[in-house]
Specification:
Number of helices of chain A: 7
Oligomer: heterodimer
Number of strands of chain A: 8
CATH architecture of the largest domain in chain B: Orthogonal Bundle
CATH class of the largest domain in chain B: Mainly Alpha
Structural class of chain B: mainly alpha
Largest sheet of chain B: none
Strand content of chain B: under 5%
Strand content of chain A: 15-25%
Number of domains of chain A: 3
Distance between the termini of chain B: 39 Å
Chain lengths: 255, 179
C-alpha cells in the first residue's frame, strides 16, 4: 500500500475518533513519525473535527465551572489539621483558628458525605428496582397455572426466528421473550399481534432500543383479552393503519 | 495577575502541566461548550451530561501530565476523554435503570431513546443523518455507543471484516462532509 492509499483508507479518521485498535494506533503513530503527509492528514482531520465540535457546542450549566474550579483548587481537600503551636499560653487565637478549620472541614465532609450517601442510596434503589423487575419476570416464567405460553416459531420468511409469549389469562398481561429475532432495519419495527377468533389484535411494537441494549428479559406488551395464537410481523414505521398487519410475518405460535 | 487572554496550544499545555489554574479556566471557557456538545449527544439526560462534563474536566486536569502532543492535538485528546466518559456513563447501571423498561403502549415510538430528539438533530448526529443507512448505523453503534467492531458484527450478524470495511468507508465519507 502506498502512502496515499494508506492516508485515504479511513485509518486516520479511525485514529482521531478513538475507534482504531491498539495495533492500528501504533501503526499510525509510526507512519506519522516517518511520513509528513500522514501527519498532515491527521492534523487536518483533527482540525476539521475540532471545528465541527466548536460549531456544535452546547452551553453547559453555569454552575459546572465553579464546581470544577473548586475541586481542582483543592476545595476537595480537607483543611490541614497540622495547626500552629497551641501549647503556647497566648495560643488561644490559634486554638480558635484550628477550631474554625476543624468546623469548616467537618461541614465540608458532611456535605460531601451526604452527597455520596444520596448517590449510594440512588444506586441501591435502582438495584432493588431492577431486582424486583427480574423477580417479576422469573415469576412469570416459572409457570403459574393461569399463565399460558405460546412458542412462536419462525415462518419461512425467517426460519431462525423464535420468540415466546407468556399470557396471563387472569390479568390479561402479555409478555414477550425474544429468543431470536434479527435486528430490523431502522425504518422497520416488529409488531406483536394476538389472533383472536381469526382477527389480528395489535399488542404494540418492539422498540429499537431493545435491540441496541438487550438488557431486558421480558418485554411487556399491551393486554390481550382473548387470544388463540400470537404472531409478529415486520412493519414500516409510522404507517397510518397500525391496527392492521401489513408486513411479512416472522413468527407464529398457537397457545 | 495574568491578563493574557489567548494562548497557543503549546503554551496552554505547558501552563496546564504546571498546574496553572488560570490556564485551566481559559481551557474550560474555550472548550467546555464543544465537549459538552459531544457528551450531550451521547448522554441525553442533561443533568447526567453535566456531571460527566465535570468529571471530564477534572480528569483533564489530573491527566494532563500524560498528554503527548506527538499523538494528537490537545482537543482530540480531550474529545476522546469526553467521549469515553460519556459512553461509560450510558453503560453504567444507574443511567440505564433511570431510562429503562417503558412498557409497550400507545406511545411506542420510544425508538432510539438513548438519544432524544433534542440532540439527535444537531452536530455530528445531524451529519450522520446524511450518511446512508448501513453506514449511519455503524457509526452510531461504534462512535456514539462505543461498541467494539466484534460486538457490532455479532449484533448485526455481519462478518467482522465487513463491519471494519464499512466503518472505514463511512469515516472516509464523513471526512469529505466535514472538510
Amino acid at each position: 500500500m502506498n502512502i496515499q492509499e494508506y492516508i485515504s483508507s479511513g485509518i486516520v479518521e479511525s485514529y482521531v475518533l478513538g475507534l482504531a485498535s491498539e495495533e492500528e494506533r501504533r501503526e499510525l503513530e509510526r507512519m506519522c513519525a516517518g511520513h509528513p503527509e500522514v501527519l498532515r492528514a491527521r492534523i487536518d482531520f483533527e482540525l476539521a473535527m475540532e471545528k465541527q465540535a466548536m460549531a456544535n457546542a452546547a452551553t453547559p450549566d453555569p454552575g459546572v465551572k465553579d464546581k470544577i474550579m473548586n475541586e481542582i483548587s483543592g476545595g476537595g481537600k480537607v483543611v490541614s489539621m497540622k495547626a500552629s503551636p497551641v501549647r503556647r499560653i497566648n495560643g488561644w487565637k490559634y486554638a480558635a483558628a484550628a477550631c474554625i478549620a476543624l468546623l469548616a472541614g467537618s461541614i465540608y465532609l458532611n456535605i460531601s458525605l451526604s452527597g455520596k450517601n444520596k448517590k449510594l442510596k440512588g444506586d441501591f434503589d435502582n438495584t432493588v428496582a431492577k431486582l424486583n423487575d427480574i423477580r417479576k419476570d422469573v415469576d412469570m416464567l416459572r409457570g403459574r397455572p393461569e399463565v399460558k405460553m405460546a412458542s412462536m416459531k419462525g415462518t419461512p420468511e425467517s426460519p431462525q426466528s423464535y420468540t415466546t409469549v407468556y399470557w396471563d389469562t387472569a390479568s390479561h398481561d402479555v409478555y414477550l421473550l425474544v429468543n431470536n429475532l434479527p435486528k430490523p432495519a431502522d425504518s422497520l419495527q416488529y409488531q406483536l399481534w394476538a389472533l383472536a377468533d381469526g382477527q389480528p389484535v395489535d399488542l404494540g411494537f418492539i422498540s429499537d432500543d431493545y435491540f441496541v441494549r438487550q438488557d431486558k428479559l421480558l418485554i411487556k406488551a399491551k393486554n390481550a383479552q382473548k387470544a388463540q395464537a400470537f404472531a409478529i410481523t415486520l412493519e414500516k414505521k409510522g404507517r397510518p393503519d397500525a391496527k392492521t398487519p401489513a408486513g411479512k410475518m416472522y413468527v407464529l405460535g398457537n397457545l | 495577575m495574568n491578563l493574557k487572554t489567548t494562548y497557543s496550544e503549546q503554551e496552554l499545555v505547558a501552563l496546564l502541566q504546571q498546574r496553572d489554574q488560570q490556564a485551566f479556566s481559559y481551557l474550560y471557557d474555550n472548550y467546555s461548550g464543544a465537549l459538552f456538545g459531544i457528551v450531550h449527544a451521547i448522554v441525553t439526560d442533561r443533568e447526567a451530561a453535566s456531571d460527566v462534563l465535570q468529571n471530564v474536566f477534572i480528569n483533564i486536569w489530573k491527566k494532563i501530565e500524560s498528554y503527548d502532543a506527538s499523538k494528537g492535538r490537545l482537543f482530540t485528546w480531550m474529545l476522546n476523554i469526553a467521549r469515553n466518559a460519556a459512553i461509560d456513563e450510558i453503560r453504567s447501571k444507574g443511567y440505564r435503570d433511570a431510562q429503562k423498561n417503558q412498557p409497550l403502549g400507545e406511545n411506542t415510538e420510544i425508538a432510539g431513546s438513548a438519544y432524544g430528539p433534542a440532540v439527535s438533530d444537531v452536530g455530528l448526529k445531524k451529519l450522520l443523518g446524511k450518511l446512508k443507512e448501513e453506514w449511519r448505523v455503524l457509526i452510531d453503534l461504534s462512535y456514539f455507543q462505543g461498541f467494539t467492531h466484534e460486538e457490532i458484527a455479532k449484533m448485526l450478524s455481519l462478518p467482522l471484516g465487513t463491519v471494519k470495511t464499512r466503518i472505514r468507508s463511512a469515516l472516509i465519507h464523513l471526512r469529505t462532509m466535514i472538510q
